[in-house]
Each structure stands twice: as C-alpha cells, then as structure tokens.
Specification:
Strands 2-1-7-3-4 form a 5-stranded mixed β-sheet. The chain is of the alpha+beta class and about 200 residues long. It has 6 helices and 11 strands. The C terminus is likely disordered. The relative contact order is 0.17.
C-alpha cells in the first residue's frame, strides 16, 4: 500500500461537508494527526466522524478498506476527511485543454454552429500559430475539421468565415464542480453525486 500513499485518493470536505479537494493518504494522515481534519468512518450510507487520531488508529480494518502496515499494526486509510476549521469553497478556472475548449464551446463548431461528435472537430487557432497566434482561451475555438482545413493558416475573414461569438476564458467555478472521481472510490459518490464524471 505504501506506493499509493502519494496518489490523491482521499476526498477533502470543508467543515460544511462540501467537497473541495482530493489529497493523498499521506496528507490526510497529517491532517488527522494535527487535528486539522477528522476522518469519516463510512459504511454504506452510515457516516461517523472520527475526531481524534488515537480513535482513528483503533478502527478495525475491514476487508474492503485500504490500509498501511506499520510497526503498530494495520492503519485504515480514510477515503474522506472533513476539515475542522475551513468552511469556504475555493473557486478555480478550468484548466486550459482541448477537452475544456470542447466543453466551453458546447461541442459546437464556432464557425458553423454544427453540433460535433467526437472525431468531427478539432481546435482552431483564430490567429494561426504561424502568424504569432497564442494557444490560449481567447485565440482557440472548436471547429469542424472541414472548416478548419479550409481556413488553414489564414485569419477567419481571409477565409470568408465569421465566429459565432468571441471566445473568452470560462468564469471561475466552485472547485466542487471540477472534482472528478478518477479512482472510482464509492465513498466519494456520497458527496460528488452519482452523476459526477470519472476522469
């Protein structure tokens, strides 16, 4: 289990039980030991806060639990911790990526308005890179492959194209909306919701 101590497999809740981050078990153990957080003993829908590190050490390790082996014995790795003092929900702008451009543009070609399926579109630089265009929120849009090929390394006006709207960076969102259960941890779904994407 020690090789998994650094992967973000522990969901962090603020003191109002809102999901705000994913941390490694090593970080979660530090938060439990210092009293910055309490661990949740989750069994199905039952959730019992374990307020002290000493109490956490006394928890039984069940067959489905992840654990670390120490000289003192097995210690259960929490799946969810609750911060004792922090009550805010941080906000963050989505990370710039091709996937984020697809989401921002609603899977629509920004020149034709056509709804695109995976593989039908790619990212177009409004001002082509060959002409000094940046790879950022304001210069990249989703375009269907045919339009992007026709545009080539020209400006939209030079190719007879018009943008449906001026691209801009998405607004900051509560980090809760950006969290993903990429490790498929069942206990997280109690706080992220069954519809949360994995990835």
């Amino acid at each position: 289990m020690s090789d998994h101590l650094e992967k973000p497999t522990v969901l962090v809740l603020n003191r109002h039980w809102q999901a705000i981050a994913a941390r490694s078990p090593a970080d979660a153990f530090c938060q439990l030991m210092t009293g910055a957080a309490c661990g949740l003993d989750i069994d199905g829908q039952a959730m019992n806060p374990v307020r002290s590190w000493a109490d956490w050490l006394r928890l039984d390790v069940r067959a489905h639990d992840r654990f670390v082996r120490t000289v003192r014995g097995l210690i259960r790795v929490p799946t969810v911790v609750v911060l004792t003092r922090y009550g805010q929900v941080p906000r963050k702008r989505p990370t710039f990526s091709a996937r984020a451009i697809w989401e921002r543009d609603g899977r629509r070609c920004q020149y034709t308005g056509r709804l695109l399926k995976p593989g039908e579109g790619n990212i177009d630089h409004i001002v082509p890179r060959s002409r000094g265009g940046a790879t950022d929120w304001e210069n990249c849009v989703l375009a269907c492959k045919q339009v992007n090929s026709r545009k080539a390394n020209r400006l939209p006006a030079e190719a007879g194209l018009n943008l449906l709207r001026t691209p801009k960076a998405p607004r900051e969102l509560p980090v809760t909306l950006l969290l993903r259960n990429s490790h498929g941890i069942a206990d997280w779904e109690l706080f992220l919701g069954a519809g949360t994407a994995v990835g």
